[in-house]
Amino acid sequence: MTAPVRLRPEIVALPAYAQGKPASPEAFKLSSNENPAPPHPAILAAIRDLDINRYPDASALVVRERLAARHGVSADEIIVGAGSVAILAQLISAAATVGDEVVHAWRSFEAYPGLITVAGATGVRVPLTPDAQHDLAAMAVAVNDRTRAVIVCTPNNPTGTIVTAQQFADFMSAVPTDLMVILDEAYAEFVCDESAVDGATLVGRYPNLVVLRTFSKAYGLAGLRVGYAIAHPSIVQAARRTAIPLSVTEASQRAVLAALDHEDELLVEVASIAARRDDVRAALLEQGWQVPVSHGNFVWLPTAAATAAAAAAFADAGLIVRALAPDGIRVSIGEAQSVATLVRVAGEVVRTL
Ligand code: PMP
Predict the structure, then answer these.
(1) Ligand 1 atom 2: the closest Cα is on which residue?
(2) Closest atom of ligand 1 relative to the 82 alpha carbon
(3) Running DSSP on this structure, what letter comes out for residue 47?
(4) Domain spans of the chain, in order of start
(5) Which of 19, 84, 215 has most ligand 1 atoms within 8 Å of CB, for mutation?
(6) Is residue 85 within 6 Å of ligand 1 at its C-beta?
(7) By three-state DSSP, how is residue 248 classified?
(8) Ligand 1: does its nearest atom lie under 6 Å from the Cβ of 243?
(9) With a 6 A CB cut-off, is 222 part of the ligand 1 pocket?
(10) What is the pLDDT of residues 122-179, one digit of tens each?
(11) CA distances (Å), 100 to each of 95, 96, 120, in order?
(12) Is the Cα torsion angle 316, 318, 323, 326 positive or negative in sign?
């Protein structure tokens, strides 16, 4: 379609963000790594009586103070955004523009390439290792004078693999200390492996590190759009300057406070999703699938050239999954009732590969 005005050609050429397909009422939506649990009553109560004629607190101060206390940092080391993806966009815009590069793994989170292009910068994709992990050594080698940021996603969407604390320490000592390193930990709460890196404990140690977290997954607030980052106050300040003002709503701020009040209950649900994930993976391995150990709320099926056909087989059985051709399928761990169908269809699909 030709536009009636002059647009940036690289924006016109960008593929639209592909959202997980909506599911029909009787199907299970396992395509967006959402939390299947219904919202906690206290969260619903917290957002019931809002003065929606008023603007929200632009700096989300109460939420920042609460998160700061939890992580043992100051409120000026926390930024709250309309989803962690918004903060990613703010950070990339603050650090990189035309002629600059941003290094990230591939496959990784689908939104990275587009956000980098929108900032005017150039994305540099470093392939995952054959066992679906970040190739941190190759990522460090990809860093040069033009590199303004590196994104490390752990657990990695869509493969579920983690970066260990040791691997991350080695990486940090291999890259320049003035290079922004964004550790995207959207799925941190689903990690059960003690060797995994925990960015929140490292911000004081590495002033160039930004740790990104979200309330969309473990806390079940995807629809309200709220996430946060922990970083050096100067980085937080820069990311605030590239933000769209007032985009974090009062509803999302109140919901975060209520979710933190009831965190123990929410984390029980998270633990049961993690257990379900491990059961699903064990069943898939028995069928002959090669599924990387997943530390997120999803599993990765390397269906390669059969990706579209496999996704169609799941859809026919009422399971909407995320097809990421030509590499594979990401299946979110959803309702307990979806598991039997998931395992049955996977057993049929694996025989066709
Ligand atoms: N990072 C990763 C790795 C993700 O998978 C997602 C959600 N799909 C996000 C960030 C963004 O989440 P949100 O904007 O809802 O916080």
Answers:
(1) 186
(2) 14
(3) T
(4) 9-39+264-350, 41-261
(5) 84
(6) yes
(7) coil
(8) no
(9) yes
(10) 999 999 999 999 999 999 999 999 999 999 999 999 999 999 999 999 999 999 999 9
(11) 9, 5, 8
(12) negative
Distance CA 285, CA 277 (A): 12
The Cα–Cα gap between 260 and 5 comes to: 47
> Dihedral sign, CA of 170, 128, 192, 158?
positive
Q: Which atom of ligand 1 is nearest to the CA of 153?
A: 3
CATH of segment(s) 41-261: 3.40.640.10
In whole angstroms, what is the distance from residue 200 CA to residue 267 CA?
18
pLDDT at 23: 67
Task: Give the pLDDT score at 21.
Answer: 64
Q: Which residues of the chain have pLDDT under 50?
A: none
Structure tokens that stand for 122 in this block = 């150039």
Residue nearest to atom 11 of ligand 1 (CA): 85
CATH number assigned to the domain covering 9-39+264-350: 3.90.1150.10
Ligand 1 binding pocket mutation candidate from 19, 79, 85, 219 (most atoms within 8 A of CB): 85
Going by the DSSP 8-state scheme, the letter that residue 63 receives in this structure is H
CB of 83 shorter than 6 A to ligand 1: yes
* 319-324 and 328-332 beta bridge pairing: antiparallel
On whether the CB atoms of residues 248 and 82 are closer than 8 A, the answer is yes
100 close to ligand 1 (CB < 6 Angstrom): no
Does the Cβ of 211 fall within 6 Å of ligand 1?
no
CB 147 within 8 A of CB 166: no
Q: What is the pLDDT of residue 20?
A: 63
Q: Residue 336 — φ and ψ, nearest 5°? A: -55, -35
pLDDT at 2: 87
